[in-house]
Amino acid sequence: MPKGVTKRRPRTRAALLQAALETFAASGFHATSIEQICERAGYTRGAFYSNFSSKEELFFALFDAHSERVISRLSALVDAVGAEGFTLDRLAELVSEVEPSERDWYLVTTEFTLHAIRDPQAAWVLARHDARLRVEVARAFSECLRAAGRTLTVNPDDFARLLIAVREGGLAQSYVEPDRLPPGQLERQFLAPLLSAVTEPATEQPAPREDPGSPS
User: Fold this and answer.
1) pLDDT value at residue 1
2) Which helix (DSSP H) or strand (DSSP E) does residue 33 occupy?
3) CA-to-CA distance for 208 and 145, rounded, in angstroms?
4) DSSP-derived pairing of the beta strands 150-152 and 199-201
5) pTM over 0.90
């Protein structure tokens, strides 16, 4: 393999992913051609097929990249607030934040979900990616709740499904009526009471964090 190819490949892949996200959001998954993605990214079809076998494989790469960002953000919540400042209200406030770029991803994933509902094979693959995301959401949320001194009283996977349903349903209404319902408002209003209803005080309080500068 020529020298430098391995260094260029991540940049090529990242450019194709970004171009696909923008083109899917603007034109739709089905209406977007591989040629349009390549043109927007500034690469050839050969570059596309050296990274992805199809538009579906590219979508799932986008899905996994978005999932990693979601989990990284959830995992950072406890560190950002600190265990002593964590409450259910504060957790609901942080989780309800919606970045402007989320709209593009919502358009893309909603259309692909409709495609998967009609296509059993796509549904099978999507369900497995969804399941991996739920595992991480449930784990990260459980850690956040422990920092608030609470623990779930319901199945974590079912709760993760509910959180995702509330998020996606709320965004659907917000993007249709942005002036009436700003993104994240439903979570901001109802997530804390919901969390209170499906959690109980933890039997063990989170261990105090050690000061990195203190002597051991």
Assistant:
1) 39
2) none
3) 15
4) antiparallel
5) no
124-170 residue pLDDT tens: 999 999 999 999 999 988 888 888 889 999 999 999 999 999 999 99
Q: How far apart are CA 106 and CA 184, in angstroms?
A: 13
| Residue whose structure tokens are 């265990």 | 83
Say which amino acid occupies 112.
F
CA-derived radius of gyration, the chain: 20
Chain position carrying tokens 């358009």 = 107
**What is the distance between the alpha carbons of residues 8 and 12, in angstroms, rounded to a whole number?**
6
DSSP 8-state secondary structure symbol assigned to residue 89: H
State the Cα–Cα distance between residues 30 and 7, nearest whole angstrom. Answer: 31
Provide the residue count of the chain: 216
Q: What angle do CA 101, 107, 112 make, to 5 degrees?
A: 130
